[in-house]
Amino acid sequence: MPTLIKVAKFGGTSMADAEAIRxxxxxxxxxxxxxxxxxxxxxxxxxxxxxxxxxxxxxxKRAIVDQIEEKHRTICSQxxxxxxxxxxxxxIISELRxxxxxxxxxxxxxxxxxxxxxxxxxxxFTAFLNEIEPGARWFDAREVIRTDDxxxxxxxxxxxxxxxxxxxxxxxxxxHKVISQGFIGSDSDGITTTLxxxxxxxxxxxxxxxxxxxxxxxxxxxxxxxxxxxxxEPEARPITELSFDEAAxxxxxxxxxxxxxxxxxxxxxxxxxxxxxxxxxxxxxTWIVKNPKSKPVIRAISLRRNQTLLTVHSxxxxxxxxxxAKLFDVLSKYKISVDLVTTSEVSVSLTxxxxxxxxxxxxxxxxxxxxxxxxxxxxxxxNLALVALVGNNLxxxxxxxxxxxxxxxxxxxxxxxxxxxxxNLCFLVDSSHADQTVRKIHKTFISTRxxxxxx
Length: 455
Ligand code: ASP
Ligand code: MG
Known about the structure:
By secondary structure, the chain is an alpha/beta fold. It has helices at residues 18-29, 45-52, 58-77, 82-101, 107-132, 158-168, 172-175, 200-210, 244-252, 264-268, 323-333, 354-373, 401-406, 434-447, and strands at 6-10, 34-39, 137-138, 178-181, 184-186, 192-194, 215-220, 241-243, 272-277, 286-289, 300-313, 338-343, 347-352, 377-390, 413-418, 424-430.
């Protein structure tokens, strides 16, 4: 009898081939509390399926389906009894052939095509788990994950999911380990939908919420969330536990962390989230919880490269209102997303989101610049990196900036944002100083286990 309810999600790399699936299945078999397993498509499959949805000559489409078929057949052939599972895979492949033969792929067909990846991988996972521990059941996520009909990035209906889970899944997971699909759902007409790329974490979190799970586990290919990127600072160490807020800040500032938006349903019910590697299940992973035991001032340092700083000056700003509104109107018109903002009496500096910045540079920048220059002077600086210190109570910690900036005496700090969030302090440095800055701060605050700031 399980004592807890754990929902465990395995991402694409944990499903890459027979060996990875078997390793993942062993993780599940070892723990009687893992009741619902949510899987991604085998790695690379969703990309192939996406290509299949584009306009391609029939021959190329057939080649892609062949490739997908071959990949899943190979995994299936590694089972002790492939014959039990192969027909299920074949059926999905033949559906896929039919779907991909249509000339024009509309949003509905596209979701039906994309859903094939998770449908197949979950069949395989069920079979591999059954070899180790009989009794596992395959379950169609579309019976529970009810969404609207915004195909491609459907919005889940939380109440419906809760009630469908109660009806179809809650008692099943007590008697069986159940394997289902991430990423896919269905609308109220029963038509297949998807939650958007990378949506499997979101699915797992929705299931966890609906089942009132105790734990949501995300099994991936990184062992843990680190105090900083170990490639920059070899003394970086895995973080045992951090809060939902800290995880949010870290992911915003570019650390490779689970994005909190995807685990929001778990956060709503304060379900503890574990991130670990299915490749090294014995290495400790990271817990993301509501109230971590320790709340150090500085938990981790993240670095985001390729930052562009836009500074606008205008004497019109002096004792006037409406300037910022006008500035942000222009940025929003061109869908430019802003990260940091600092202002003085006559100027405003802001950093632009990296992705947007590249498109801004190509086509939009001339227009945006022209429009901004019609009411202010504009200066653009590139080759900057954003360093973020993430932790707790940074805004109210006396004596913090001394050691932070003291440790960076010989580095030029271009802009500082401090105080808007209690969970971060961030600043820009020249790209060439980025790694050095991260190392210095890590040494000062984390490697030394500085008792004032890093308990
Ligand atoms: N298979 C889907 C994708 O690659 C969903 C996921 O893996 O999260 O986007
Ligand atoms: Mg994925």
